[in-house]
Specification:
With about 350 residues, the chain is mainly α. The protein has 14 helices and 2 strands; from the N terminus they run ααααααβαααααααβα. α3 runs antiparallel to α9 and α7 runs antiparallel to α8.
Length: about 350
């Protein structure tokens, strides 16, 4: 085993970060109301969203520690992607359908490649090799392959025929949603013994259920407000700058909405629990593909748009590459820091490619 290094206190354990960034909440609202420069409003709003996502993660984690693992998993599945859902809904209402599609693919890719990659890198610095649960990763890998099939076929249909794939997307969304619910039944009930992981003894509940529930409710409300502000300023920024909707959705939005998951996954990697790190990344990607995307397909007509599962070919290529790579690296049950570098490198290459599109 390599010599252990201390965890970065300011990132992993200090409660001053990122909660000290809550100061940006009133500032972002004031800048929006005074119609300040859209770029300035966007930057401040992004800084305000980071502590909100952390509060959502912290409150759901606290509630999970006071309940069974089944209820805790359902809580995390329900609220873990709240910011993505809010931003997507407001973006659909604003007519930014391409940005919504890119953000969905971006969240899937960033969780598979960058989140797991960084976890392997930080964990690999402390431990020469780390072992993970091949059964858990195998099930998640298969679910990701199903997501690839569900999202790519409407895309292929739209490209070949030139017709709208919205009706087809609705049928596929129902299938994906049912598959996701059945996977929860498999993981949380019928085959729960295959996925049990030891709960970190250092993780203790610090908030009571009333406080955690109140913080969660307020965080969800604030997430809706900040998401609305962010989308309202992103529209003129995209129209008046060289940034494309695909890059904004796949990189910028995907990064700011997944900060808590990255911090938690890296923390578990540093504690030699790379299984949980991989589960965080892969399960979050599965939730986006099989739960959030189908919901948005049916919500979109209510928002004045029609969001189909027909993605741009380059977006699908990025997702397929990510799923193929994680399937290959997750086949042996062992990982090291170099494999983490490889995953992160692929994500950086994809981000660069979308910037120049």
């Amino acid at each position: 085993m390599l010599r252990k290094i201390r965890e970065p206190e300011l990132i992993m354990r200090s409660y001053l970060f990122p909660y000290s960034m809550l100061v940006f909440l009133p500032v972002s609202i004031w800048l929006h109301l005074t119609q300040s420069n859209p770029i300035l409003v966007a930057i401040v709003t992004i800084l305000a969203i980071i502590p909100i996502t952390s509060l959502i993660a912290r409150s759901t984690q606290d509630l999970s520690l006071r309940t069974s693992t089944v209820v805790g998993s359902l809580l995390n599945a329900t609220f873990g992607n709240a910011i993505e859902l809010f931003i997507a809904i407001f973006a659909i209402k604003a007519g930014l359908l391409e940005m919504v599609k890119a953000s969905l693919i971006g969240s899937i890719v960033i969780n598979i490649l960058l989140l797991i990659g960084l976890s392997m890198i930080f964990g690999g610095i402390r431990y020469r090799e780390q072992k993970f649960n091949r059964d858990s990763v195998g099930v998640s890998s298969t679910m990701l392959l199903i997501a690839v099939a569900g999202l790519s076929l409407p895309t292929i249909y739209s490209v070949i025929t030139g017709n709208s794939a919205f009706v087809m997307s609705q049928a596929v969304s129902i299938t994906l949603g049912i598959t996701y619910l059945l996977s929860l039944l498999f993981v949380l009930f019928t085959h729960r013994h295959l996925f049990e992981a030891k709960r970190d003894v250092s993780e203790q509940s610090r908030w009571g259920p009333p406080k955690a529930s109140l913080v969660l409710a307020l965080s969800i409300a604030l997430a809706g407000v900040e998401s609305d502000i962010l989308v309202s300023v992103l529209q003129p920024i995209v129209q008046n700058s060289a940034l494309h909707q695909d890059f904004v959705g796949l990189v910028i939005i995907a990064i700011i909405t997944n900060v808590p998951e990255h911090v938690a996954a890296i923390r578990f990697g540093l504690r030699n629990n790379i299984t949980l790190s991989m589960e965080i990344g892969m399960n979050s990607a599965i939730q986006i593909a099989l739960f959030v995307a189908p919901i948005l397909v049916f919500i979109s007509p209510l928002m004045g748009g029609q969001l189909s599962l027909a993605f741009a070919p380059f977006q699908m290529i990025a997702m397929i590459l990510a799923v193929m790579i994680i399937n290959y690296l997750g086949s042996d049950g062992i990982c090291n820091w170099l494999e983490g570098v490889q995953l992160a490198a692929v994500y950086i290459i994809i981000a660069i490619a979308f910037y120049f599109m």
